[in-house]
Model the fold of this input.
Amino acid sequence: MKLRLSLLTLLLLSGVCLAAEPIGLHPQNPHYFEWRDKPTVLIGSGEHYGAVINLDFDYLKYLDTLKNDGLNQVRIFSGTFREVPGNFGIVDNTLAPAAGRYVCPWARSDVPGYAQGGNKFDLTKWDEAYFTRLKEVVAQAGQRGVVRELVLFTPLYVDTMWEVSPMNAGNNINGIGAIPKDEALTLKHANLVAAQEAVTRKLVQELNGFDNVYFEICNEPYARKVPADWEARIARTIAETEKELPHKHLIAQNISNKSAKIENRNPLVSIFNFHYASPPDAVTINYGLNKPIGHDETGFKGNGDAVYRKEAWQFILNGGSVFSHLDYSFTVGHESGDYQIPAKTPGGGGKAFRRQMKILKDFVEGFDFVQMKPVREVVKAEGAVVYALAEAGKSYAAYLHGKAQNASLELPVGNYRAEWVNVLQGNIEKAEDFAHAGGDKALVAPDYREDIALKVQSTAAPRK
Done:
């Protein structure tokens, strides 16, 4: 395995800590983030989580693509979980490395017999080459302005995943994991829990010096009914490990698919993630928690852009703070995101979609968005579904899906500028300056095909 180490990584490997404070909650509005002294929303479109564990994946080309496309968030899996070709119908799955090309936190032993070829794992020893690669990936991401969500664990959905798991007793020399797959992420087996706590501590320690990381406890725990007490144990392990370390990182929890009311919130958790979260009800019903709500995975709605673009705009303009698209145009050999996605693959992605996500990111960053909050009935448009953020009397950001007729915006007395933004190209389709006497202001949209964004700001104060 040939590594190209950055100066930052070399310094971190030698014990030098250079990072600024990690990404955290914004002090004025904890629905959003503060990173590198700037208010931040996280919008990404990334590969299927195997950038670290798949040795054939060229992460530098991948990260250069993300930087050039203007996005700032991706997920990666830690390596405690992997898939095999064919899982979920994904073609050229980055999370299913070829034989001999899988690397994870645990070191290989000198005993042959791993299900996918090569030696079994030793759950008491670390693969230092893996940690070097992990830190290099995170360091290079940070240099390109990209935040990494590191997912520590994932349930074993089907038998083929358990058959290749290092936590399965058949694949390690420790006699750990001679259990049914659905007991792997529970507190039922003390020796396996100890191994999971140890790998959590190691990952947290190794990444403490980076400012562009937060930790998700478990991807889709609800898919196999992972118990809450096990998730709480892992969250506590993260927090207790960082007590004696220089930096404290945010912890994320994956709550459900689509939407759910969050009950009995773990106080150690700061980010609440949902998958396939459309319509964005997850934000609406949990907004009172005053924490970031993330749309953490998309898919299963075909390969086209429109459905996922709609999800992104509606979620962020409803007060969400993370949109993480699962972009299947990134594969081994296509790290620039130019893979032609087969129809049977359960999602979309590609250059055009990433451009659309940058337009969304630029649109939101064109406001002082930490001063804004979701509003209902302020922007009305017959024939369109509208989601909007507003700072009353100053700034209004709206997304309209469907052909709008008789659009109006409730405004106080003042002078304003309205701009209609093309969500496919980013250009301003129509602009007008106007003085308003208060109440509803009629706004005539330009002709558009399916969806459009509206930006209205007071001209009495400087616009961003």
User: Anything to note?
Assistant: The chain has two domains: 7-365, 371-458.
